[in-house]
Give the backbone structure.
Amino acid sequence: MGESVLLAGGASRRMGQSKAALPVQGVAMSERIAAELSRNGWPVTVLGGSPLEGCKHLQDDHPGNGPLAALSGFRPSTDLVFVSPCDIPKFDGRLPSVLQSQIEGFEAVIPVLDGRDQTLCALYRNAAFVKLAAHPDIFRVRDWIEFLRVRRVEEAELEAIGGSVDWVRSVNTPEEFSNVVGS
């Protein structure tokens, strides 16, 4: 197993309110995701946002500078780190283990949804964070990924290895949230 990082410090501009606090089945989305990860053996560090009971918490040293700036301050204590955003209403804590089955020989396993890398809902090796620290001049996650040996897992393959696209699909607007939670 490994550990996980829950990104909870975003501004949620398109949502108009904190995505981390949106209720899913009566529980704030960030609390629900953290509980799923912990229950499945992936201890959680909340990065930015508000602390959650039972989780480590690190303030974002660079608020407003995006997820890569926030991740650059994280130092893994295990070889595997699952990174998750706080905005996946149907997240399932089995996802990191499903992705772990694909990491042999790679520094990252990244699901691909609708043709787009889901870099903020992916499994990374500690070595990926070492490379991030070695390149303080990069500012976008996609630039970080260019330095890594990446295994991309397309939608059909994710389903075939025991995952679900619903476990990865994030929401950014009230309409998306309503559509996903209501379905």
User: Anything to note?
Assistant: The beta strands are 3-7, 23-24, 27-28, 44-47, 56-58, 80-85, 108-113, 116-117, 122-125, 150-153. Residues 29-39 form the longest helix (11 residues).
